[in-house]
Amino acid sequence: MTDLHQTITGFDLWHLELPVTSRRDHGIGSVEGSCEVVILRLTSEDGTQGFGEASPWSVFTGTPEATYAALDRYLRPLVVGSRVADRAAIMAKTAFAVAHCTEAKAALETALLDLAGRVSAVPVWALLGGKCRDTIPLSCSIANPDFAQDVALLEQLQVDGVRIVKLKTGFRDHAFDILRLEHLAQNCPEFSVRVDYNQGLTVEDASEQVRDVAQFKPDFIEQPVRAHHYGMMATLRGQIDVPLLADESVFGPEEMERAAREGICDGVSVKIMKSGGLSRGQTVARIAAAHGLSAYGGDMFEAGLAHLAGTHMIAATPEITLGCEFYQASYFLKEDILEEPFLVQNGKVIVPDSPGLGGRPDLDKLDHYALAKAVAA
Ligand SMILES: [Mg+2]
């Protein structure tokens, strides 16, 4: 029976280490061997369960250890004993329980939405305002320091129908970036190409290198310089005739408002792990749109559960028009954690219509990959 007034009684956590298939380099750091995520499970009085994922990256948003502690110690007391219906009140209190820790807050809101959706028998997108799209074009990132391995990946993407790639630049040297752009232009003309520096350029080098890259006419160039270099972002934006995207410079609505006011970008990468949840991610996209700026569905090193959360957010947010990059479950993790695969068909993510997130983790996999857990017997 639908009962949003029932109490949340269970709050369980797993800190997972998930093996990955390849090394990936970025302007601000590398990922090799594995990535770490934190999974939250909420249980209500009638036994209904909702799941959420936090996907921190230590050089970008924060650490898995801080995420786990934020949930276990500081957010748990806001949730246990509250009603399923009280999602907005719980999320409002999180700001006063722990600073930052946006990935922990994203996991909490995801689990609250999944739980409310399953109790009400509606998909999460219905709780976020309704659906504006059934599929989302998928972008896969090209970030392997061994470009031969990425050439093999490109061949696989072609077969799979993926038609957007994002080239990670600024981690070795400019010649390597140009070589790979030339390869894409000559050998893979069917791909729409985006470029992401992940803050990799110095203020001294940025103008020359970004202007070179702009000559390849990518869809956009993302975050060439450090997150706090707002003035340099605005300068670079004026020097090129392709859109400049902000990622690390914009976490939540507060930075989006400042970014728009200071004219640092033509668009923004919206990530629930930066904004601190799906609702705040929607707000980022709406502020951007109000200023005539575009929005892209970015992600961190996520498993399929976080992909599902991002999928529902984008499905309910018409302002996010540039597709998504939820590729890790399909192309990066050795094994995803979901019971059923995260659904991508012909290069497009399929928006689920079943209750809640439309997918849940395999509990045996959570236990298998756990470095730590706090699970009631
Ligand atoms: Mg980025």
From TrEMBL:
Query: Which GO terms of type biological process are on file?
Result: amino acid catabolic process; peptide metabolic process
Q: Coiled-coil ranges per the record?
A: none
Question: Is Metal-binding given among the entry's keywords?
Answer: yes
EC supergroup of this enzyme: isomerase
Q: What is its EC number?
A: 5.5.1.1
Mandelate racemase/muconate lactonizing enzyme C-terminal domain residues are 148-243
The GO terms this record gives for MF are: magnesium ion binding; muconate cycloisomerase activity; racemase and epimerase activity
Family membership, please give it: Belongs to the mandelate racemase/muconate lactonizing enzyme family.
Output this protein's name: Muconate cycloisomerase 1
Q: Which organism is it from?
A: Ruegeria meonggei
